[in-house]
Design brief:
Blueprint lengths: L7 E4 L3 H12 L4 E5 L24 E4 L6 H11 L3 H8 L1 E2 L4 E4 L1 H14 L3 E5 L18 E3 L7 H11 L4 E7 L2 E3 L9 E2 L15 E6 L1 H13 L20 H6 L27 E7 L6 E4 L8 H8 L10 E3 L2 E7 L2 H4 L5 E2 L2 E6 L9 H19 L12 H12 L40 H23 L6
Parallel strand pairs: 1-2, 1-7, 2-6, 7-17
Antiparallel strand pairs: 3-5, 4-5, 8-15, 9-13, 9-14, 10-11, 11-12, 12-13, 16-17
Bound molecules: flavin-adenine dinucleotide.
Keywords: Cytoplasm, FAD, Flavoprotein, Methyltransferase, NAD, NADP, Transferase, tRNA processing
EC number: 2.1.1.74
Enzyme class: transferase
């Protein structure tokens, strides 16, 4: 076997690992993808299937607006780099207003089928239960991507901890319930997207809305606050991720918090009572292509399973709801990446190991897949002997690399304040807000923020394409 044809090993076939494997194979380098789900008796606390790239909670890749939304920009960058996660997501989208949401089973099956069919990809169902094996002349273990996610198996997590001498960092992440559509009462609920916003598929009525008056809202908050919660005594000091707070934790912050968050009633009109404004509205988003399942948007919860059905059936329209899946809370583990990883996302203590996905301290399906995409390209370039740098910080992808490898500030005494982050414009170098548009017309003050985002997105895509075109890897 020539050096060039040695395989690269990817550990973990989630969002990041699947994308990394695809990018490596597309660069003409053989890849062996090791995924532990599929081995009898081996699972994580959140995955339910053996499929690659399984979505564990919501089915949304969030906004698809590349001009004004940072995650939409990340979508665009990934599409420009032939992302398998984006192409399968686009092929399996379901209506979701301005967001890109997918049929979770169809999406995962498509990613699995594409990887299984690729001649350069070998999928092995096994747990890597410790540090990856020693490298020899031919086995390829000199170039490894670890993409084992927030629920990395305990044996591998322990080996990484021992190697780095660092305590793992962690936070809580929660899952929202999914409801069978035929158990929703459409004499009460109605379909409409907020502000009738049309989605990529042209649907302006993507969400199911369940209205509440003031008395119903107050009773619901009381039930949420008093309902029995799952306790995690051994993880008492573990923080929540702010973008994914359990609904009861939000309610504890103030009785009105939910009305200004996931239950906000704005931009929606009850067709049965158009003159009366609902006091609060619960939204559900289509979860599968058949339209038989809907997930409760923003309703991630740590209520005990027995209590969930009772409390959520207080929501008008859901009084007879049947739940396909209940919510739950999981501990999420990530590395102290700014200290441990270099800008190639290699472990300084063992550079043959690259890390990708949520375990590096990015947060979310899209961000995790983006880091898989990048490490796949970096690893393939290294295998081909054609060095490649991470994209510039002006791109969404480069900004994520900057965040996980050193863009944050530590606290006094060097105590790490590194926390997982969704992509956002604050991670990219700032630009002056424009005062006039491309035609020289003055932009009103309140629209300048939007105009600035558009400029930042255009700058990012241009830089990303220049990076791609100068890259030593083939481009399709
Ligand atoms: C409870 C929970 C809810 C979440 N909800 C959302 C959400 O609603 N929206 C969102 O955008 N993000 C959500 N996230 C975050 C989301 O899981 C991640 O962003 C994303 O799945 C991470 O992708 P990944 O590839 O890094 O990890 P994963 O997709 O989890 O993939 C890791 C893979 O590695 C495998 N594996 C683990 N250890 C080993 C081993 N030793 N050997 C072989 N294989 C191994 C696992 O089986 C898994 O398939 C949630 C996370 C959790 C834990």
């Amino acid at each position: 076997m020539t050096d060039i044809l040695k395989p690269i090993h990817v550990v973990g076939g989630g969002l990041a690992g699947s994308e990394a494997a695809w990018q490596i194979a597309s660069a003409g380098v053989p890849v062996i993808l090791h995924e532990m789900r599929g081995v009898p008796g081996v699972k994580t606390d959140a995955h339910h299937t053996d499929g690659l790239a399984e979505l564990v909670c919501s089915n949304s890749f969030r906004s698809d607006d590349w001009e004004h939304n940072a995650v939409g920009l990340l979508h665009a960058e990934m599409r420009a780099l032939d992302s398998i996660i984006m192409s399968c997501g686009d092929a399996h989208q379901v209506p979701a207003g301005g967001a890109l949401a997918v049929d979770r089973d169809g999406f995962s099956q498509a990613v699995t089928a594409k990887l299984e069919a690729h001649p350069m990809v070998t999928i092995v169902r096994e747990e890597i239960a410790g540090l990856p094996p020693e490298a020899d002349e031919t086995n390829g273990w000199d170039n490894v991507i670890v993409a084992t996610g927030p629920l990395t198996s305990p044996a591998l997590a322990a080996a990484i901890l021992e190697l780095t001498g660092e305590d793992a960092l962690s936070f809580f992440d929660a899952i929202a319930p999914i409801v069978h559509a035929d158990s929703i009462d459409f004499d009460i609920a109605w379909r409409q997207s907020r502000y009738d916003k049309e989605g990529p598929g042209g649907d302006a009525a993507a969400y199911v809305n369940c209205p509440m008056d003031k008395a119903q809202y107050e009773a619901f908050i009381d039930a949420l606050l008093s309902g029995p919660k799952a306790e995690f005594k051994e993880w008492e000091n573990v923080p929540y991720f702010d973008g994914c707070l359990p609904i009861e934790v939000m309610a504890e912050r103030g009785r009105e918090t939910l009305r200004h968050g996931p239950m906000k009633p704005v931009g929606l009109t009850n067709p049965r009572d158009p003159q009366v404004k609902s006091y609060a509205i619960v939204q559900l988003r289509q979860d599968n292509a058949l339209g038989t399942l809907f997930n409760m948007v923003g309703f991630q919860t740590k209520l005990k399973h027995g209590a969930q059905a009772e409390v959520f059936r207080m929501i008008p329209g859901l009084q007879d709801a049947q739940f396909a899946r209940l919510g739950g809370l999981h501990r999420n583990t990530f590395l102290n990446s700014p200290k441990l990883l270099d800008r190639q996302l290699r472990l300084k203590a063992m550079p043959r190991l690259r890390f990708a996905g949520q375990v590096t301290g990015v947060e979310g399906y899209v961000e995790s897949a983006a880091m898989g995409l990048l490490t796949g390209r970096l690893a393939a370039a290294e295998r081909l002997g054609r060095p490649l740098e991470a994209p510039p910080v002006h791109t969404a992808m480069g900004a994520l690399v900057e965040h996980i490898t050193g863009g944050h500030l530590d606290g006094p005494g060097g105590i790490s304040r590194f926390q997982p982050m969704n992509i956002n414009y604050g991670l990219l170098p700032p630009l002056e807000a424009p005062k006039v548009d491309e035609a020289g017309v003055k932009i009103p003050m309140k629209e300048r923020g939007r105009a600035k985002k558009r400029l930042m997105s255009m700058r990012a895509l241009e830089a990303l394409k220049a990076w791609r075109d100068a890259s030593p890897l083939p481009h399709r």
